[in-house]
Amino acid sequence: QIIEQNADPEQMLLSYLRKRLHLTGTKYGCGGGGCGACTVMISTYEPASKKIRHYSANACLLPICSLYGAAVTTVEGIGSTKTRVHPVQERLAKCHGSQCGFCTPGIVMSIYTLLRNHPEPTSEQMMEALAGNLCRCTGYRPILDACKTFCKESVCCERKTNGKCCLDHKDDLFDKEAKVSTRLFSTDEFQPLDPTQELIFPPELMRMAENQPKRTLFFHGERMTWISPVSLDELLDLKAAYPKAPLVVGNTTVGPEMKFKGVFHPIVIAPARIPDLNVVKCTDDGLTLGAACSLSLMKDILTNAISEFPEEKTKVFRAVLQQLRTLGGEQIRNVASLGGNIISKKSTSDLNPILAASNSILNLASRGRKRQIPLSGIFADGLGNNAITPEEILVSVHIPHSRKGEYISAFRQAPRRENALPITNAGMRVLFEEGTDIIKDLSIFYGGAVSTTICTKQTCWTLIRRHWNEQMLDEACRLILKEIALPCSAGGEEVDYKKTLVVSFFYRFFLEVLQSLRTTDPCHYPGIPMEYRSILQDFKTKMPQGIQIYQAKPSQSPQDPVGRPIMHQSGIKHATGEAVYIDDLPSVDGELFLAVVTSSRAHAKIVSIDTSEALKGPGVFDVITAHDVPATNEFYYSDDPEIIFARNEVICVGQVVCAVVADSDVHVKQAAAKVKIEYEPLEPVILTIEEAIKHNSFFEPKRTLEHGDVDQAFETVDNIIEGEIRIGGQEHFYMETQSVLAIPKGEDKEMDVYVSTQHPAIIQ
Q: Which residues belong to any copy of the 2Fe-2S ferredoxin-type domain (predicted)?
C-alpha cells in the first residue's frame, strides 16, 4: 500500500528507507551495488508452491517499484540495543568484526539472510555470502571469526601438534611460561541462534499474493513512468508502443547507467512477473531458462542438472556454472537476470562468451512473430551488431547438452576473484571427429578485449580438420592475436597484458582438452609434463586462518583493559545500525548541499568556467569559485600549501575547480554536471622519467640515499651493477563516501564541523 501511494520510479529502496522512513542503519556506500554497505533482506511469497524466498540485495540498486508484494528486512528489524540484539549482531561485535562500522550493517544482513536459508551453513556458503561485502578498514579475519561460530563443521587451523582443536578454548590457551594468550572472545557469552524466533513473512502480503488477481501496475513519477505487465502479449504491445523503453529486472545495468552516466528513460518496463519469462524447462537436448530468471536461480538449476545428468551431457553447464560462481557478489546475482546479462551485450559479460561458444539459442518474440537465433550470431562479425530489433523481447534462452567428443571451457581474469568486472574473459568449445583428435568444429569467443564480445571466426575456420597438437597450438595463438585487434587507446601495458591473457586462455584450453583426450585414450595421446600441470588446477578460496598472541597477566585487574582484547565500545551499535554517521544526522533548517566540480584534464590552462546552465537548475543557490574565497586561496596540510579552488590552471585530473550549492543532494549533483569548463593544453607534457630529465623537472627537495664518500666508493669497487625497472600507474581503490556538515553557530564566526575523517587532528 505504501508503494502504491508514494512510489517514485526513480527512487531506490535505499533513499526510500532513509528519507521517507527515516531508517539510517542501511548505509550509503559506493552507490553502484559494488560494496554491500546497503545490503538488506528481501522476502517474497510464491502462492503456487507456497514457498517463501529470502535473498540479500543492495538497496541502492533496488527501485522501490520493483518491490511490490515483497517484505524488506533491514538491520534495525532484526535487533537493537533497545529491544534485543540478534546473535549475528552480537557475535560480529564481540569477535571484533567492526572498526569504523560503516560496512557492518551490510555484513550483518548478508550473514542474517544466509542463516534464514541455512541455519547451519558450511564455510563455503559463508564465504560466498560475504563475497559482495567490502570491508575497508577492519580486515576480514575477525569478521570471518564471527561467521565460523555459526558453521556446522569445525574450521580448525590444524596447527596443534597434540591433535587438539584451536577452537577449544578450555585448554592450552594460556602459556604460563611465556605469559601469552590467544583467546580473543568467549563463545560461552554468545546467545544461541534459534531459527524459530525469527521474523515471519507478513500475513497480509501472503493473503494479497493468494487472493488478489495479478494486474498491470503503473507508477508515475515526476519524470518517469514504471509499467509492470503480467502477460507476454501485454509486454509485446508495450514494447511495440515504446521500443526505446528498457526492460528492467534487477536494475544492475540500467541503474548504474542512470546514476553515473546521466542516462534517462521516461518509460521503464518491468517484466519480472510474467510467467513466460520465468520458465524453467528441461528438454531432450538441454535446458530452457526464462530471460527473467535470476543468476542465483540459474546457478541452482545448473547445479541440480549436473547432479542428475551424465557428465558427457553437462560440460556446458559446468563451464557456465564456473563463471556464475564469481560473477558479481551474492547480492548482485540474486537480482540480476540472465536476459539482462545477454541483451546488454557488454564486453564485461562473463556469460556471453561461454553461452555463444556453446551454441545457446535465444527465443525471441515480438507482436505477431516468434523466432530463434543463435547467440553466437549476434557477435559473429566482432562488432556486436544488433540482430535483435527494438520491438523484440528475449523470452528465454536454451542451453544445449554437450555431446560425445565435445569439450567446453570458460575463463576469466579480474582484478580480484569475486565481485569485480573481468579484464578479459573467454568461452571455448571444440568438437572432434568421432574417435580422433581432428577438429570438426571450433568456437572461440572473448570478452573484455574490445567494446563487446568478439568471435575469432577466421581462426576457427582455419583450424578445422587440424589435429589437436602443438603445431595447431602455435598457429592458433598466432591467428588469434592477428584477428583480435586491441584498441591502442588503452595504456600500452594493458594492451600487452590483455594479449597475454588472450593467448594464455587458449593455451589452458589446449592443455585441458589434451588431458581429457589422454584420459579417454592414454595410448594415443601424450601426457602433459609435470611442470605444466599446475595450470589445470583451479584456485580455491579457503577460509582464512589466523592466530593473535598477546600478553596476559593472571593478576591483572578485571577493570584494567590494557593488553586485553576488549570489544569496540561502539561495536554493538555498529552492528545494529544505531551508530550515528554524518548522513544520519537530522536535517538542519535551511540546510544546503555542496558538490565539487573537478578537473577532467591533468595539465591545462583554464580558459573559462561557464556556470549559466548550472545556475538555472532547480534549487540552485550559487556556484563558488576561487574568486569567492575571502582570504588566500590555499590551506596547509604539511609544509607546502594546497590550493582550494584551481584559478588559472589545473595540475591533475580530479582537482577541485569550483563548487555548486543547492537545496538537495539530487539538485546539486544535477547542477554540478552542467558546469562547463574550457581548457587549453599546457606544454611541456611530462609523462615519463626521461621527459622529466630532459626538461629538468625534478621534485624538490632532491632526496638521496648516501653514506660516506659515494664518488670515491664507485671508483674503487670491483663491480658496478646497474639496470632499470619500470612500474606503471595503479588503479586506486575507493574508500567510504566522505562527507562534512558545517553548521554556523551564529556568533563570533564559529562553526560546528562534523567530518567523516580518520584524522581529526589534521582537520582541526
A: 1-78
